[in-house]
Amino acid sequence: MTAIIDYDAGNLKSVEKALRFLGDSPLVTRDPEEILAADRVILPGVGAFGAAMERLNQYGLTDVIRRAAGRRIPLLGICLGLQLLFERSQESPGAEGLGILKGEILRIPDTPGLKIPHMGWNSLSIRPGSRLFAGIPQDPYVYFVHSYYLKAADEAIVAASAEYGAHIHAAVESGNVFACQFHPEKSGDVGLAILRNFLML
Fold first, then answer.
1. pLDDT tier at 10 (50, 70, 90 boundaries)?
2. pLDDT digits 0-9 by tens, 37-70
3. How many domains does the chain have?
């Protein structure tokens, strides 16, 4: 069973629908016992970094997510969920992230001809050997909606990158912790293949 963490941060239904399409039986929950008993955990999210951390703290979920990561339960962050796994974000100075992974979230720089937020399809450069992208050909297109991007402290955890006004660390893998800045649940067949790989971990 896959637990999808509900902390009022949106895009839960599309993630749940994609997992059901793949034959999984996801549970949308904020119950700590259900999350820690799950086979896999997904932290989705859209919105602002600071407000999201406030909600995770309000619902008592910050420690639960850290415990899930420490128990080696496969954990997937999506979009804002990726950003929250790291230490800090320029979007919300002073707000502490979960700190499960090392790195910071930066604003996409203003670049002539590029709109912010970055909204739409973009190709990925995949690191060979990535478990999340197993069987997916190089340079796949996936769907992004974001104004801030990850700069991981350790490039060895970067599973895929993209270019959009900056070198974006678009997906990471570190032990049992995985995350995508883009939305696999909105990325067609490629996104379904990524989610299928996660379900098979």
1. confident
2. 999 999 999 999 999 999 999 999 999 999 999 9
3. 1
Question: Where do we find the tokens 């067949």?
Answer: 189
Helix axes 49-58, 62-70, angle to 10 degrees: 90
Distance CA 24, CA 64 (A): 22
Alpha carbon 108 to chain centroid distance?
17
Three state DSSP letters for 169-192: EEEEEECCEEEECCCHHHCHHHHH
Which residues are catalytic, by number? 79, 183, 185
Please tell me the distance from the alpha carbon of residue 112 to that of residue 87, in angstroms, as a whole number: 30
In this structure, what DSSP letter does residue 106 have?
A: E
In this structure, what is the dihedral angle of CA atoms 165, 9, 175, 173, given to the nearest 10 degrees?
-20
Residue 120: CATH number of its domain:
3.40.50.880
Q: Which residues of 28-44 are buried (b: 16+ CB within 10 A; e: fewer)?
A: bebebebbeebebbbbb
Give 156's DSSP letter.
G
Supply the range of the domain harboring residue 62.
2-199
- Mean pLDDT value of segment 184-188: 97
In this structure, are residues 193 and 134 in contact, taking their beta carbons and an 8 Å threshold?
A: no
The pTM score is 0.97
pLDDT in tens, 101-117: 999 999 999 999 999 99
